[in-house]
């Protein structure tokens, strides 16, 4: 060990007697400081003009344009300049012969030189660490552990780069060639993860070898044993290769012996890497304050209930627009997207099934007129050189699973303990399911899903049709991630005039019947209510009389006409509502509306209590304190004679009825407007309607669904230094600090030359 230390000390002295080491430090210091203080300055200005800030630690240090991310992208340029002369300098000068003929072990020579460069790399971490210290005094409640996690990741990365550079330096006497070769190898390791991803077994090895993004999890605050071991193993591989290469100058070995040694080393490293990258052997440590890189408590409670094999099967239609997300070359990345779950459920098995069938990919059909589905599938295979073990035809896939209700889209099934449910792709920017959707799907195979039944038979709103007034978006749209069918609910319809309400129904919704309910329908609904089951009644002012028999049983009634309010910007039937304050959370809990988004009602009746039927009536939404009048619908302005009529304020528009019956809590919602749950209103930007509807169904399901994946609010949301202090820091760290490094380097170099 003493020999290794002495060699490292000598190598460090040599490095600092070279201008290159000092120039690299100066450039790194200026570049990192410029990025860091520019970010601080930008957020300080934003804070000054009143913009809300949040999660500053992560935003400044990681993410798309954070300090760590930026410096990670440039580290590969610095290292070859430092490592190119480690051994090639010795080879070029001839001193390598003296080293090899000395009693010093080659292992000690290589480890000493590697220790020297690893020690130098600590200076990079030290400069970044100094900026973390500045951030600690510049950001209120900085997440220090998060920042430290990123430093660890960057140091392991740069040390791995150094090991690669060391080996390349052993191969040539030309330092420039060593530097270029190092860049080539680093580029290769970044690219290798994309090679042969459609070849079984080989794809796992090349994916493991890829260094691209390997430090990203640590930069985001999560330390994973397989990533740490990757850096250790790859560094060990190239250090071992360096030792073997130098031994060829000392030991007389045959070519076959050398090949055997190299093969054994590479094979053992690859085997160890493959084994340690398995989910069941990986360990995790989340260094974020709010545990952002770990499942939320709600999701953890779900996975704890799973004890046994879980199978996730992805059905990929080659003709669907999202087919590329689960192709063989994307499987490793796709599997990695479930790592939050495989961390706790290593028994998850993932399978991919490929088929072709008619899809909604209009662009594909338009670009290939005259081709049938089979010809299109064959064209996709040929043009993309796809290697598929099996491609199911439409007839074959239907024998396995009927995906027509899923519109033959790319979709997954989750199977556990004999139960199966769908996990879908979505038509939004992210496409893939997030924790909220995955946890909801897993929970569906653990506990019974709440079942929503929509009444039909009286021209009610449809959950299967588009159009402003129908309900497909919020309830039955498979391509919309926040539709309740994707958040854990089952949605179906029942003709209450001709059919009994299914026994397993959790929530019956009667949405704006246009014709009178038959006596059979009234009897079925009355029986349903008497059994203590949950109900939702939605009516429009013109047709609310159709529900009179039901509302009378509940002890409430609708106003005969719509409510209107005077407004300078909106039509009279546009009601500005107020969410009732101080609602007893034992009755119903609502999410905090941070943005104070309004919940508009267009053409709504008011609701009044007519008699006591044993229900506790709790208003949820009311008109605001501005005067309102009853009027016929369709008016464009409030006539003067109507203004002379008595007005009302704070009239309930949505009420919750609750009672305890048959040993359980019965929940009923009555609303004077059926449009607020329609496709148009749920898609309205800047509205709080969608959150209100979500909260209501969360209440109906006893807060089981949708899954709550909210996390504690980040507290690092304030810059504590002013513009002048930022400017002074920029002068010090971008100007004076690099100047100090330059002067130090000049002093050492001049002193050495004088000697």
Termini separation: 30 Å
Number of strands: 21
How would you sum up the global shape?
elongated
Strand content: 5-15%
- Helical proportion, percent range: 40-55%
Topology of helices and strands:
Elements: H1 2-16, H2 19-48, H3 56-61, H4 67-83, H5 88-93, H6 95-101, H7 106-138, H8 144-169, H9 175-191, H10 202-209, H11 216-219, E1 222-224, H12 225-247, H13 255-276, E2 284-286, H14 297-304, E3 310-317, H15 331-336, H16 339-342, E4 348-355, H17 362-367, H18 373-383, E5 391-392, H19 394-400, E6 411-416, E7 419-424, H20 435-444, E8 451-456, H21 472-475, E9 490-495, E10 507-511, H22 519-530, E11 534-538, H23 548-554, E12 556-558, E13 562-564, E14 574-575, E15 577-579, E16 601-602, E17 607-609, E18 616-623, E19 629-631, H24 640-643, E20 652-661, E21 664-671, H25 679-682, H26 689-700, H27 723-754
Parallel strand pairs: 3-4, 4-5, 8-9, 8-10, 10-11, 11-21
Antiparallel strand pairs: 1-2, 3-6, 6-7, 12-17, 13-19, 14-16, 15-18, 18-20, 20-21
Structural account:
Helix 1 (2-16) packs across helix 7 (106-138), helix 2 packs antiparallel against helix 27 and helix 8 crosses helix 9. Strand 20 and strand 21 form a beta hairpin. 45% of the residues lie in helices and 14% in strands. The protein contains 27 helices and 21 strands. The strands form 6 sheets. The chain has an 8-stranded mixed sheet, with helices on one face. Strands 5-4-3-6-7 form a 5-stranded mixed sheet. It has a two-stranded antiparallel ribbon with strand order 1-2. It is elongated, with a radius of gyration of 34 Å. The chain is an alpha/beta fold. The mean pLDDT is 91. The protein starts with a helix and ends with a helix.
